[in-house]
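Reopening closed ticket. The problem is back. First fold of the pair:
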Amino acid sequence: MAGPALADHSSEEHAAHLAAQAADPHAGHQGPASAQPGAQVAFADVPLLDQDGRELRLKDDLVGDRIVVMGFVYTSCTTVCPVISAILQKLQKQLGERAGGDVQLISLSIDPLRDTPERLHEYAGRFDAGPGWRWLTGSGEAVADTLKGLGTWTANYQDHPSLIMVGDGRTGQWTRFYGFTDPAVLMARVDELSAAREHSGHEALAQETHP
């Protein structure tokens, strides 16, 4: 049996790839899609701003005990970040009324010096972001502290990997998804976390009924 054929990348495709990286260094960091379960997460208690200029705390005001899907982008990125946002846009559609209810979508800017609330508001509109999808920025220090707590900080924001995190604020279970993850994979993880909640709730009820 013949082995798999090697991809034939033309010189034109290679040149286009290099040009994209030159225009946006972040373009070279999407990598293959992969998942890292059991991610350690801590929430910095710092003020952030959403796309409407409202001050909030990530853990208290958005995560709480919800299931959360969080992406990391910056608005001047023209290659990788729009794809990450489009993935969340598709997920928002799949979630329907659950978005903003038991599931919270979050996009956190990794370029807070340029990404003002006004700029995020305009950018969010490109992806039809509904009320269940919040876009966050803040001071450079606050965003850096937030990224460090989430284990996603890099010294140069353009070197930031393509990343979407899915977790349960109630149980503290988090998974990092690197690369361009299929929205169906993210949805499956959301459903797994929801099912685990229902299972634990049934067990707790059974223990109360039959101590």
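Second fold of the pair, where the issue appears:
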Amino acid sequence: MLALLDGTLADPDAPLVRVDDLGLLRGDGVFETILVVDGKPRELDPHLDRLARSAAMMDLPEPDRAAFERAVSLVLDNWTGGREVALKLVFTRGVEGGDGTPTGFALGMDIPAKVIGQRADGLAAVTLDRGIEPGLAERAPWLLLGAKSLSYAVNMAALREAERRGASEVVFTTSSGSVLEGPTSTLIMVRGRTLTTPPSTLGILPGTTQAALFRAATREGWAVRVEPIAVDDLYEADGVFLVSSVRKITRVHTLDGKSLPDSTELHEELVDLYESEY
């Protein structure tokens, strides 16, 4: 289901984006993916806030928030698929050599069966060096670390490398052995009643699902921390999880070919915490 920012629906199978749109030619744009359950979008305001923040980092025009909200409503009011929707908001710089008018739309899609299976069964991941070091985001803002841009070629290449190594996901690391994030997810490590995630100062994207889980955990008396995590710490943790809007809370059962401690019960507890927010 596809909705444009002018408040109209469009046929997702018909030609729409121009071939000279800079989002297509150069990945010059930003996006967000929002989970919708039973017609209710989760963390819509934080996602729209992050869309605007990413756009500002890339010197894009400020997204028309009201237009995106209208497009979201239009998709959801006309959705006829499953009870869960992956709702993508896309905003590009528009046509190369044009008048500067950006391209924007909202696109609703079913959740992939693979992702739903991983939610239940967990997954195997590998660690891959992302070439990022602490302080790089501040020293080199033009690298757009922490912006959710359309330039995902490196992320997709990392996932293909994981498949070549017999895994399905990636934990990006710094060259010095600190944990960053997944290509499309935030990492959370659990020890006892403490949840820890790496800081955004490392140049990673602050996660909306991670924030929702941390809110719920704090309310129920868990400790939450945002601080650096060493890769070696993951092997000794009670649980390692990759979280995102679409994958929700997914446990990592194997890392670099090594089985991690069984976190099945812990996973169920974290899922209940996350769902309690909604």
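Update: turned out to be a display glitch only; the data is intact. The chain has two domains: 2-111, 116-275. The mean pLDDT is 94. Please close again.
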